Amino acid sequence: MAPKLFTLAIAMLAASPMVSAHINLMKPLPYDYEAHRQDKGPMTANEYPCKTQTYAFDSTKMEGNTFAAGEKQQAEFEGSAVHGGGSCQFSITTDKKPTKDSKFKVIGSIEGGCPEKPEGFTIPKSVPTGEVTFAWTWFARLSGGPEMYMNCAPIKVTGGASDTTEFDKLPDMLIANIAGYTGTSGSTGDTGSCTQVTSTDLKFPNPGSVLTTDSGADLKAPTGSCGSSGSSDDSSSSSGGAESSAAAGTPAASTPAASTPAASTPAAQNTGGVFAPGAANPSSTMTTLLTVTASGAGTPAASTPAAVATPAAGGSSSSSGGSSSSSSGSSSGTCSSNGAIVCNGTSKFGLCNNGNVVWQDVAAGTQCKDGAITKRELPHGGRYFRPRGSYL
């Protein structure tokens, strides 16, 4: 099957890299788009839902947000740090200006490799015809701590349902890493009641009937009160772009994918770096459009938790003490635990891929320690001063 494609817009601000340190939705065009371009950071509890209070939108651009039910659409994103991928959901609410009590219904879930290798989305026929609100949520794999990203867009659906009977049967969108929410949209509860496991790809308790699982995902269910498990009956699940029928919520087989990618369709492989593979150098063009293939060839399946792997000599380091013993100028090394996060001191990391590892700088404000990406241990009682509007 031909690899599935999606267009990822990489916006590089060389003079102010901290300002564009994350990802935001670009298509469908979201509410408060210009504000999101300046603030791509994760959502706080006060910003739920949609990370907006104004729901500002230029109605003359609604034509670009009009979608026919049943037709495959492409999502586009803008930003520079994909944080090693992660898990995403596409959801819809019939509320035109959602509140914390709105019910978002899942129309598609992606476990691992998102937003670097998302599969796009299809508006199901059960969504009512007319104006509704589309939502993209993202749980990054290698962030400095538990985070949730969310953007919403007003869209117009054509050829959909005349009522919400079937739409209401769709699973509720997962809420995790947000204080005061119990795990599904429209519910509040104990602080921190649903939390992602650090440095893993979040496994959705109820992904719905349309699920895509990346072959290299290290899936772990969130902890706490995260809503019901299980899903709708008929599921379309894929591993590395190959579709198959499986129960939603069941990850792809844990056997490694073929280690030799097809010569005619080389896959862009994510080694867990801050920048997507193939993206422009931060010092080059301001904005670059990158088309990524979602082929699973060459990407191992990480079915076990990330563990500390000891790099071999030549490109190696010790994860304790932050001292690196790699040879000058070396950008790669070897490792033994496939799929593991490998630390090169505290400032560099990589994902073990069939015995090889390519070193990447960790995101600002984070460190690599004991086989995981964590918030950097800060001096001065843990206080960290940063420029207004920037995210670490």
From TrEMBL:
Keyword field contains Disulfide bond: no
Skewed-composition ranges (Low complexity): 186-195, 221-268
Span list, region Disordered: 186-279, 297-334
GO molecular function list: monooxygenase activity
Signal sequence interval, chain numbering: 1-21
PANTHER family assigned to the protein according to its UniProt record, in alphabetical order: LYTIC POLYSACCHARIDE MONOOXYGENASE, PROTEIN, PUTATIVE (AFU_ORTHOLOGUE AFUA_6G10930)-RELATED
Name under which the protein is recorded: Lytic polysaccharide monooxygenase
Organism: Aplosporella prunicola CBS 121167
UniProt lineage: Eukaryota, Fungi, Dikarya, Ascomycota, Pezizomycotina
